Amino acid sequence: MLHSPYTWLGESLETIKKANWYRQPRALASQSGSTVMLNGQSVVNFASNDYLGLASDPRLAEAAIAATKAYGTGSTGSRLTSGHRPLHRDLEKAIAQLKQTEDALVFSSGYLANLGAIAAVVGKRDVIFGDQYNHSSLKNGAKLSEATIFEYQHNDLSDLRTLLTQHRGQYRRCLITADSVFSMDGDLCPLPELQALAQEFSAMLLIDEAHGTGVLGERGAGVADHFGCTQSEMIQVGTLSKALGSLGGYVAGSQAMIDFLRNRAATWIYTTGLSPADTAAALKAIEIVRTEPQRRRQLWENIRQLKTALGNYELVPSESAILCFGLESPQQALAMGDRLLQSGFFAPAIRPPTVPTSRIRVSVMATHTPAQIQDLIENFQASFAYG
Ligand SMILES: *Cc1c(COP(=O)(O)O)cnc(C)c1O
Question: How far is the CA of 110 from the centre of ligand 1 (A)?
Answer without folding.
Answer: 5
